[in-house]
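Reagents: none. Just compute today. DNA primase.
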Amino acid sequence: MYAEEVAEMAGRIRDEDIALVRERTSIAEVISDTVTLKSAGGGNLKGLCPFHDEKSPSFNVSPARNVWYCFGCGAGGDAIKFLMDAEHLSFVESVERLAARAGIQLRYVEDDRSAPRPRPQQGQRQRLVAAHAAAVEFYRAQLTTAGARRAREFLAQRGFDRAAAERYGCGFAPDAWDLLTKHLRQQGFTHDELVTAGLSRPSRSGSLIDRFRRRLMWPIREITGDVIGFGARKLFDDDDGPKYLNTPETPIYKKSHVLYGIDQAKREIAKQGKVVVVEGYTDVMACHLADVPTAVATCGTAFGADHISVLRRVLFDSDERAGEIIFTFDGDAAGQKAALRAFEDDQRFVGRTFIAVSPDNMDPCELRLAKGDLAVRDLVARREPLVDFALRHMINRFDLDTVDGRVEAMRRAAPLVAKIKDREKRPEYVRKLAGDLGMEIEPVQRAVLAAANGQPAGTATAPARPAPAAPTVDSPQSMVEREALKLALQEPVLAGPMFDAVEASAYRHPVHVAVRAAIATAGGVATAAGGAVWIEQVRDACDDLAGQALVGELAVEPLRIDGEPDPRYVSITMARLQWGSVTGRIKDLKSKIQRINPVSNKDEYFALFGELLSLEQHARALREQAAGGL
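Predicted 3D structure written out:
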């Protein structure tokens, strides 16, 4: 599908412009907007795959070749393909996004690829993002008007000055029915675009009116920094709407995936290996201004699985580097309920989960206003493990002075202990729970064990499902074939004629044979310039699905050599590849000679014998050339 789309769109964006975008794009920078990357050795980077859940990083990026590949799910490609998959963009939209990022002016051609023409229309996503960007400027300008006095007072009363309002793009939706709508229509946005973006809505009379009115506005940005929606706070008593009104679900705004503040917090989250989850926009602002720069908040929905996936990728939350997730729910009943719900999701994290609750049940914004920045930092520093909080509040619901109360508390608390993902900690929590309940340890142990055995598959007691295995490397010959193909894909200028000179018959593994054939179909290594374009050409030329996946894998897999490869290494690899093939033919030839009667088939016998001597001589020369080995 990718290859077909490339072929289709290449006729509308000039081929040389697409190549220039690929050349000037840093794939590591593009992917780092979404995934935290760490060194994987050999110049490669690794992170948690954004396309499937995993506990160990199998997502690899090769900056030198501008390609990526996931050994877990088999996805891979270049920077254009990453944006297509990660943000559900078309090929053209991805190219245009990267071109804008690199400062490249794209040129478009007619279907006959003749005269250049301007792009007739941007993709839908770009149009919706552009509409939101224009709306941000409109709302920000309105915040300085006389009608926005109540909005400015709201911010000031919560300790946010003009600089803070500007930093977070705060604005005001005016007391008018269609002022934003008219403003955006004058800028060229259509009726359908404004409705689709969630910025306007049809009125009862059929005309188009603003969705937000008389409210304090916060732009909601996705992790890359693009504004994709708004959060609107009620200011006036005669406003009969909800306290907070958010953008509805749109093609670019999915509330279950969005975390407010993630665009500003992502680098500190990755650096510190820690994230603070708060409940509102003002809490995020208060935390950031109080030097807790890792704070984020959900946008009008409960914290859930999709939010966890986003945070794990930014945290690099893996077996190699478990992160810290700190929740700051209020201490009231609703906050306690949210904390217990968060504990249910604890298993989705590799890292440890904590909760930080102010003694006065104040949220971070209230705490900063009442006691200053230091109090906010202390709140986070005094965090306690979420399981401790959950157990304490669970058993506090029962009368422990009665037998029935203690037994029921044990029954309700045992599943929480059974869900602790670090099994080595469970015995300690069993003892702690028994002590808190005033019970003997044995019945508590039995209750926890029963809860653990009764859990469905997929919880902490069930092993994680292994990722799909990479193509099997089952012999020295197969390893050499693999190395030769890596050289062709990663170092075509170096491998060049030496690779092409070795016949395809030297490859035995079926998938390797398919990839070798695709390299020939793509024009051979000697003519390749390398990089993402060359790798995509080989992938597109491969008819075998397993071969297509292997191309992406080999493009990022390190070579089996310390340091940079040189012509000698290529020569050794190709000699070993041929030696394996030649020795196989020698073995087959010897077997055939043994089956021939030299008396009745004298001519055939001596012909085969002469071929055998020639092959053995060739094998000796190859063995000498391959001295030093892999």
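The radius of gyration is 31 Å.
Action item: order primers for follow-up constructs.
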